[in-house]
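cron nightly-structures :: item 1 of 1
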Amino acid sequence: MSGRRADSRRNPAPASVVHSAHRETTMADNLQDRGAQDRARVNVNEPHEVRYWTEKFGVSEEDLIQAVSVVGVSADKVGEYLASKS
């Protein structure tokens, strides 16, 4: 049995398991986290995000969704695209 213990010490849990709790608390859709990560990407799958971005860019939900489908989720690129359309 002592060999078994030594193996478990040599093979710790993968980093993804060890740090999974940390990742959950910093996800972009965490309503408590409104930092840079949340503002760098446009998430059209969350109502609060759609509300924020449509107000920020002064566009409709449909225009926002179209912009994301054309240029991706980068807030800077979405903003540039929408500005070029007006």
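cron nightly-structures :: done
The helical segments are 2-10, 15-18, 20-25, 36-40, 47-57, 61-71, 75-85.
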